[in-house]
Amino acid sequence: MRLAAALLLGLVLATPIARADEASPAPELTASPETTTSPAATASPAPSPVTVQGSVEKGPLTIGQRFRYTIEVAAPTGIEMQLAQPTERLGDFDIVDFGDAPAVERDGKTVITRWFQLVGYATGNHLVESPPVRYRLPGEELTEAPGDETLVEIASLLAQEPNASDIRDIKPPEEPPVDWRPVYLVVGCLVAFALIGFLVLRFLSRSNRVAAGPPPRPAHEIAHEELARLRARGLAEEGAFKEYYSALTGIIRSYLEHRFRLRAPEMTTEEFLMVTARGAASLQSSHRALLGDFLSESDLVKFARHHPTLADAERAYGAAARFVDETAGATTTSRATDSREGPHASR
Hints:
The protein is α+β, with helices and mostly antiparallel strands and 347 residues long. The protein has helices at 2-23, 39-42, 181-212, 219-233, 241-260, 269-277, 285-303, 310-327, 336-339; strands at 51-56, 61-62, 66-76, 80-83, 89-90, 93-106, 109-119, 124-129, 133-136, 142-144, 149-155. A five-stranded antiparallel sheet has the order 1-3-7-6-5, with no helix packed on it.
């Protein structure tokens, strides 16, 4: 009885306490930092402005066959990009060659294309992961762009053979090809030496022929022949004084060129007389005076429309012949008597 009374008394005392608890406001719950979920953490990351796309040329690929793998990187203008460049292997494949195509503009983006020539020696399906591509926005750090994986299927050549179990022995080693380059070099040198020897012999034989030929004729002999030929034409008797004096002065100028190495045909009378006065032709003063009078008179006929007489023409002819005789040198054979016969000698 005592125990039951004690229990009843405890229940009565506990009842108001439970009601106070129910009436009291619920405590405020504060989320710990570990359980707090922010909107930024739940939001998906922003898409990359740089896209990478890989592709493989179409067609069945077999073991040991070379094929082209291409990646295209597209990015808006103004973004700095860095493309990694593997040089030996790309995934399960060996790199044989690689290169870049010119950048193009497509849909407002710059597209960079890089190609690889690959070869594989294992059959089956292979995933080729694109080389890393990093980019930098203005004022930000380098960021790696999402890569791309391309499936490459390499077929076995044995599957294409009707008798795939027919394994043949290795072929015996072949003889290395003959290297003909040393032979070509020796033959080329011999041909070159033979050609050089032929040219040297030809040059020497030509020099001997030139040395064995007759010596050049003296300038005064050529001048006397031309004077005789002019006299035989009879231009003065026909009244063609201008043509006659032109031919006469041409003979003397040609004689001076060959005798004294003067470019007399290219000089005017004043230039030529000035050169001879400076001692270029080793002429005596009497010869220079004779030549000056002869050329001055000829210029009057050729350029000043002076009308000479037959006596003037005969005197000019004699002056030309005497000038040749007196300046010919010690080897000359005087022809003064024959030359001074003048224009009338042919009549």
